Amino acid sequence: MNPHGVSRRKLLALITAGSAAAAGLLAVDWQNASGPGWPGISPVNAGGTPPRRGDKTLVVFYSKTGRNFPDLNLEVGNTAQVAGFIHDRVGGDRYEVVPAEPYPADYDETDRMAQREASERLYRPIKPGTPDTDQYGTVFLGFPVWWGEQPMAMQTFMRDHDLNGARIVPFVTHEGSQFGNSLEILERYYPQADVLDGYARQGQQVYRDPDGTRTQVNSWLEGLGF
Predict the structure, then answer these.
(1) Looking at the domain assignment, is residue 182 inside a domain?
(2) How open is the CA angle 4-102-113, to the nearest 5 degrees?
């Protein structure tokens, strides 16, 4: 049974035994769910024709460095690690979403800020220089799950880039929530995209077992035909 309401079609639960739901930033706050249709999130290019797409591949991600749950200090974020494994296999272009103002280094401060941003739909500005996404037919979209959804820095990228008509392949890191509500949110932004089965991995396991994570990623990608 899937307690989070995520469709079996999209939930590829590649998490290790013993994973437990974490509190705060990396847990699911189900009271923040906006209900059917996700009021407050408007579809990108609602009712319009999807852009003409190229055949290139893009791996785009947001990843937090510094203090991470439970007590890790990361020079390379867990989601960035997974993005690197994906890029090593599929090639194409790679782009990291970077907030214009970094999240606080302190874990608890980031937790509080992320909760407020999610509950109030506060889109966090990101640095300029984002790619022209119309040239990509396949987009891997990666992020940590914060309060049951994409961090608002990633949602800024999603709001500002029309990925309708593309194949979107989500991948996430988490500490017990798996995808949370992020797949429903993704489909709210891009109702005309083809969202493929995603990959979910506990952040601690990415850090502690990078070789095992790479093996899982390669197996997942092979199953999708990459």
Answers:
(1) yes
(2) 45
Task: For the chain, give the number of residues.
Answer: 226
Q: Which one-letter DSSP state was computed for residue 21? A: P
Spell 53-65 as b/e; 16+ CB within 10 A means b: beebbbbbbbbbe
Q: Within a 10 A sphere around the Cβ of 161, how many other Cβ atoms?
A: 20
Tens digit of each residue's pLDDT, the chain (226 residues): 232 333 333 434 333 333 333 334 443 333 333 434 455 788 898 878 888 899 999 999 999 887 776 677 778 889 999 999 999 999 999 999 999 999 988 888 988 999 999 989 999 999 999 999 999 999 999 999 999 999 999 999 999 999 999 999 999 999 888 999 999 999 999 999 999 999 999 998 998 999 999 999 999 999 999 9
Which CATH number fits the domain that encloses residue 193? 3.40.50.360
Q: Are strands 72-74 and 66-68 parallel, antiparallel or unpaired?
A: antiparallel
Q: 74 is in which domain, residue-wise?
A: 24-29+51-224
φ, ψ at 144 (rounded to 5°): -75, 150
Number of domains making up the chain: 1
* 14 within some domain: no
What is the rounded CA–CA span in Å between residue 171 and residue 142? 5
Burial class (CB in 10 A: 0-12, 13-18, 19+), 187: middle
In a domain, 163, yes or no: yes
Euclidean distance between CA atoms 27 and 4, whole angstroms: 12
